[in-house]
Amino acid sequence: MNISGRSKNQSEETGRFFDPSVVARISNLELRARHVVEGLMSGVHRSRARGFSVEFEEHRPYTPGDEFRHIDWKAYGKFDRYLIKQYEDETNLRAHLLVDASGSMDFGDGPMTKWEYAATLAASLGHLLLRQSDAVGLVLSRESDDPFIPAKAVRRHMTALLSTLEAERPGGGTGLARSLIQLAEGLRRRGMVAIFSDLLEDPESVRRALRLIRLKGNDVVVFHILDAEELGFPYEGLARVEDVETDRNMTVECEVVRDPYLQILQEFLDTTRDHCRREGIHYVLLSTAEPLDRALVRFLAWRSKLRM
Hints:
Helices cover about 40% and strands about 20% of the residues. The protein has helices at about 10-15, 20-25, 30-40, 75-80, 115-130, 160-165, 175-185, 205-215, 230, 255-280, 295-305, and strands at about 1-5, 45, 60, 85, 95-100, 135-140, 150, 190-195, 220-225, 240, 250-255, 280-285. A six-stranded mixed sheet has the order 7-6-5-8-9-12, with helices on both faces. A two-stranded antiparallel sheet has the order 1-2. It is elongated. The model is unreliable at about 1-15 and about 45-55 (pLDDT under 50).
């Protein structure tokens, strides 16, 4: 894919597709994902030939060298084109989307919580990958018992991904490191793993798990999602702070804790970013106030570099 240049007016027009306050008004996750991807595609030139309907999702055009026995003659009779059945092993990419469903992801004071932002972004990326004939799977990271949807490359597979995401309600403690290790041990083929999380777990445990995913030959992208208030700490006076994963809470004076909090946060972000860079992991820090296309555009640019 090549991302085309856009004028200021075009950018303002398409920007409405990605504004979290606009996207949040769409209650259905499938419509949200389509809304975001269609907005993105209006600024992207597709390299694949146009004119193929959704009925070709499990096929690819015949090319010289393909065996005639693999031609789908029923499809030829219907569409007057030589088409080869698209088998799972022939897909461009095998991707697994791991979405953090712990209680801390339910936080958010803007139009979307971290969970809603992560689920929408994951659904949008899944929709985009399936449009490109890539295989997509899904893991929901919980404290235990992670729902798992195996990777498939047909567009109707999106229904299973979306229904799993829509049925989930974030809660309980975190299990991100365990989920990453379990996924790494279960992968039988190299591919891509995309992680959508606030990474609020023991940093060293998460880093070891990320390293394991990479050591098994997978490309890894981390979408580090935090609420705008977590990044800026705009509070004043006395505030009651609650840990949604443990139900523990305490009262703090915001002016006293702001600077230490921001310093600790910055150290955490810098350390996480540096670790990802050393391990060859693509790291994307996102605020829930940011337009969703930024993450997708950065993903496309990263993937283009991998193909070079």
